[in-house]
Amino acid sequence: MVATLEQVFREEWGRVLAFLVGFLGDLDLAEEAAQDAFAIAAARWPRDGTPTNPGAWLMTTARNRAINRIRRDHTLIAKTRLLEVSEATEDTMNETTFPDERLELVFTCCHPALATDAQVALTLRTLGGLTTGEIARAFLVGEPTMAQRLVRAKRKIKAAGIPFRVPPDHLLPDRLAAVLAVVYLIFNEGYGGRGELAADALRLGRALAELMPDEPEVYGLLALMLLHDSRREARYRGGELVLLDEQDRSLWDRVQIDEGRVVLDRALALHGRGVGGVYVLQAAIASLHADEPRDWQEIAALYGELARLTGSPVVELNRAIAVAEEQGPAAGLALVERLPLEDFHYLHSTRGELLRRVGRTAEARTAYHHALALVHDDAERRLLERRLAELPR
Amino acid sequence: MKFMLLIQQGTTPTPQDPDAWAQLSEEDQKAVYADYQAINETPGVTPGVRMQPPETATTVRVRDGQTLTTDGPFVEMKEALGGYLFFEADDLDAAIELASRIPAARMGGAIEVRPVVEW
What is the DSSP letter of A27? Predict the structure, then answer.
């Protein structure tokens, strides 16, 4: 029972909170009211049973609590939008009575006037339904630090007039990119080992796809996350990082790969004949990587598109790897040598690998040492040490 | 709500520095004047007064009861305030849009958008 209650809470939190922000016009008041309602639910539902429509129950209760709270404290009335609302105390237990304003909320939380770490924390707190403590642990900072970050961000939203709305068309592409970047950042934090964050990002991605069914990049990101996440079980073996080529494919989550591909097709269909945005392209590449044998020519071509779109030398590095598979290590190496990525350990580890394949062992050793000097992650370091040890003497 | 837009000139050429100003084409110079005029005529904008360049600034401090004056602005010359205006708008997005139309924003300077306390 406790588990289900927690599940319902996490699922309903964003919707309930977003409605309250729209209703009250204030994030802090909305959070208090939502917390009130969830506390009442936690006390009553186990005793009286879960209502048929938990979301509507929570929103009605939270709204009524907020109104009572405000009645007690009349000075707050001026600060809320309540005056526009007629006697809204009737209990209408139907979810459709309440507007779904989660999109407005996510665009507020991911507004570029907020620092990225604040955008991430706010999105997890408001839409994701994580507690401050959970977010703090996920990002390996102290709870007071995270609480401060959230307080400061909420203060800025209020004081600086960050709007609670879906941006107009001319701002939408940029703002949507910011939202997707936050979700992808959360996913990648989770991909590094903290699995719950990846699950949270997937939940956010699914919610966005539900809320913005016409945006190919939203589906692109969801597909990308599903396809990457499907390999989660295979990425580590006894705490050691396993590269794609050496992964046990039976550990891949086939259901999730299929789902990712369905979502990707949806994105491609929305795109018409265009090339696709950065997430759609990456998802298409991830999908090709799930095939055996892999179509390296197509993978290299898609990396080429992505490189044109982003101008990123890191993407170019990935293209070089695909080219090496398709045309041989020397061709890949020629591309790698041109890249301005001196401080990026993957450049050196890739160089090392390609040099090894063309038989330039001594240079390969130097390249691996170079990579080792730059790497921070322990699992990646051990992987490089294994590669180095495997080089012929 | 009300915003104050602080115009940081940075390396933006201005007519107050004739050499730098002369580097701009006549067309660009006209565009700068036209853009500032359009900004000042935007509904909700209260233009600030025009300021002499930061080179003319005097900075005043009082320490231990002594008034100390130094030549020049409080911050570095190129970080000195170049101008300001007030803007009454619905939200930050509107203020950001206005700020992005101020020539200094694209010519080497930046605009700081600050909400004004209202009672």
Answer: H
Residues 95-154 of A with CB under 8 A from B: 111, 113
Question: What's the whole-number average pLDDT of chain B?
Answer: 93
C-alpha distance from B49 to closest chain A C-alpha (Å): 24
Q: What is the pLDDT of residues A281-295, one digit of tens each?
A: 999 999 999 998 899
Kindly report, residue by residue over A187-233, the tens digit of the pLDDT.
988 766 667 889 999 999 999 999 999 999 999 999 999 999 999 88
* % of chain A exceeding 90 in pLDDT: 71
- How close does chain B come to A157, measured CA to CA in Å? 9
Query: Nearest C-alpha of chain A: how many angstroms from B110?
Result: 14
CA atoms of A306 and A281, how far apart (whole Å): 7
The predicted-structure confidence for A351-391, as pLDDT tens digits, reads as follows: 999 999 999 999 999 999 999 999 988 888 999 999 999 99
Would you call A160 and B96 a contact, using CB atoms and an 8 Å cutoff?
Answer: no
A167 neighbourhood in chain B, CB within 8 Å: 93
Domain at B2-115: CATH code: 3.30.70.1060
Nearest-angstrom CA–CA distance, B60 and A302? 61
Supply angle C-alpha A124, A127, A129, rounded to 5.
Answer: 65
Interface membership of B111 toward A (CB under 8 Å): no
Chain B interface test: which of A75, A107, A162 (most B C-beta within 10 Å): A162
Chain A positions in Cβ-Cβ contact with residue B87 (cut-off 8 Å):
none
A171 inside 8 A of chain B by CB: yes
Q: Measure B95 CA to nearest chain A CA, in Å.
A: 9
CATH 1.10.1740 for the A2-83 domain, yes or no: yes
Chain B positions in Cβ-Cβ contact with residue A159 (cut-off 8 Å): 115
**Domain segments of chain A as ranges:** 2-83, 103-197, 213-294, 295-341, 344-393
Per-residue pLDDT tens over the stretch B60-78:
999 999 999 999 999 888 8
- Report pTM: 0.85
Please state, in angstroms and as integers, the Cα–Cα distance from residue B33 to each residue in B26, B39, B98, following that order. Answer: 11, 10, 16
* Opening angle at CA A347, ends A299 and A321, nearest 5: 20
ipTM of the complex as predicted: 0.86
Cβ atoms within 10 Å of A288's Cβ, excluding its own:
16
